[in-house]
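Limitations

Structures in this collection are predictions, not experimental determinations, and the ligand pose is part of the prediction. Treat each record accordingly. The example that follows, with pyridoxal-5'-phosphate as the small molecule, is included so readers can see exactly what is and is not provided: the inputs are given verbatim, and the output is the predicted complex.
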Amino acid sequence: MKNFAAEIKALHDRQIYRQINTYQMIDACHACDENKVYLMLASNNYLGLTHHSKVKTAAINAVTAYGTGSGGSRLTTGANKLQKELETKLAKFKGTEASLLFNTGYMANVGIISAVMGLNDVIFSDELNHASIVDGCRLSKSRVIIYRHNDMSHLAELLAAVPCRGQRLIVTDGVFSMDGDIAPLPDIVQLAEQYEAMTMIDDAHAVGVLGPNGQGTAAYYGLEPKVTIQMGTLSKALACEGGYAAGSRQVIDYLINKARSFIFSTALAPATAGAGLAALEELQNHPNLVMQLNENAKYLRNQLIAAGLPVINSQTPIIPVLTGDEQTALKMMHKLKGDGIIISAIRPPTVPVGTSRLRITVSAAHDVQELAWAARMIKQAARSLGLGEE
Ligand SMILES: *Cc1c(COP(=O)(O)O)cnc(C)c1O
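Predicted complex:
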């Protein structure tokens, strides 16, 4: 029998044992527990829409109209009106013919990749892609070729070198979840054309963040028609939960018939579809939300860089402060929690060994005064642990 106790002890010994904290969100940027109120700098709630009155009302109205659960998978009990409407609007937002909802972003990636790719196929995947892409690749039974992070000459080399009897797919995060940098989509699309490969982009952290109206990575580069599948989520900037695939009508019809995580799972609850629709509408009606988000991110990032902290200089609201080892990341997280700020320490296996970090995320709803205070506290915590220059 598996020795659970020994395995758990090993995690403790390596300082990578994880536990779940309990917090209540009071508003979009503040959480509390029995001790105190915290400033939240760890959430992917980029636009602060989780607590927007219109979004909350839409969720409540959806429950009143359609009940609490959808009762079955979409292919058995059908789609309710809200799910259909959300798919139509998401497709329009992403500049595609159609879209399909999944219950989570994780399930979207696993379902899409394993449906589209098979035994004789080859997937080219960025080394820092999200775990759900990694799992989708494994489930597909395709040969998986990992290229160095955002390294287009490495990708070109591998495309030329690896024989393929079937289909090729290049898959990448649009905005990388732990580093906050952006995939070089123009080069990826060009290589895909040269090698007749399909392309898939995961916009979990790009929707509501990148592009003129927050439509994501393809829109940011003006390359919507060149991407085979734009995957995205409702769980981050869109303030609820769920994932989706956006693409041509044919691709979506194929997924309806082949994606097992879509077929064999009960459809999103009406409240989620209602909230998702309202959040999307807020985003589309208020492009200033995306500008505010980017201004807040720029402000905090510049404060931390000016303080001499080892910040990965991303262009997105994900601001990683590299500590290198797990211990420093954990100590800094605990110190900041004592100060009243929640920031996650990110450790292996989420990031490569030796690249542990604090992952700070900013939202459009943060107040600049509070960000200024947070920057001072982060700097203090870093100095007390010997991190950053004097
Ligand atoms: C969060 C995330 C997912 C998973 O989305 P969920 O809706 O949380 O399941 C997929 N890909 C990336 C890049 C993510 O950051």
